[in-house]
Amino acid sequence: MDRSTIECLCAGLVIAALGCLSGGPTEPPELPDADARDRQILTLERSIARDRRSLEDLVTKPRDENMQELHDDAVLREIAARITVETRRLRTLRSQHGPSGDRAPTP
Fold first, then answer.
1. Is 99 helix (H, G, I), strand (E, B) or coil?
2. Half-sphere exposure of 12 (CA within 13 A, CB side)
3. Measured over all CA atoms, what is the biggest interatomic distance in the chain, rounded to whole angstroms?
């Protein structure tokens, strides 16, 4: 394996570990109205896409011997943590209502 492949694998492990470490909400959040929910979903989708592009740029950037290890990069950790939180929030918002705006049935 070449160095960039190893760095990509390390980044994936960091993201997965941060996702496991961050706890979810203890109480369900209040349900927003449909328009506010749609705006929140759009905002989260855009933010997650932007962060994923940033992660891709960070992971694929050529690194030299003097640079810190990728898994020690504070920016990578910050982005990974933010993506984890926002992805959970997005999943929650999407699960609260069906496509017609009706609340999804609880399992």
1. coil
2. 7
3. 55
Q: Containing domain of residue 65, as a range?
A: 3-19+36-96
Rounded CA separation 29/94 (Å): 13
- What does DSSP assign to residue 25? -
Which residue type is seen at 1? M
Phi, psi of 40 (to 5 degrees): -65, -40
CB atoms within 10 A of CB 55: 20
* Domains identified in the chain, total number: 1
- 1-57 per-position pLDDT tens digit: 566 555 655 566 556 555 554 555 445 556 567 788 899 999 999 999 999 999 999
Q: Does 107 reside within a domain?
A: no
